[in-house]
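Researcher: Please translate sequence to structure tokens.
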Amino acid sequence: MSDDGWTVEVLRAHVAAIFEERDKRYDQRFRDLDMATKAALAASEKAVNKAENATEARFRGVNEFRQTLSDQASQFMTRLEAVAAIERNSERIQELTDRLNRSEGKGAGLNAGWAYLIAGVTVIAAVIGIVLGVTR
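Model: Translation complete:
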């Protein structure tokens, strides 16, 4: 035994107390670290869920827009239909133009007929006038 009161048993008890104190501190650190990790994991899961919801909402909007464009495109006339409609309209316009030309030709012919009739009546009247003027 030594004079300062340190024996093997006292030293062993002292070292055991230090180890026990350190074990308590390490346990507390690990519990704190575990709680912090769990909190960070929960926050991360919440952020991931929020991001997934936002992405789903955006994709729903994109799909709605895509569906609108698809519906609109189905309403459009195809190129072949447009060409056929244009050709039909061109034929109708040509028919109407021909009909208008014929009716104008008939009108011009009728007007010319009236002019010939009036000229003929005038010539006959002039001849009658001359004959009556000579015979009087």
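Researcher: Any highlights?
Model: The mean pLDDT is 88.
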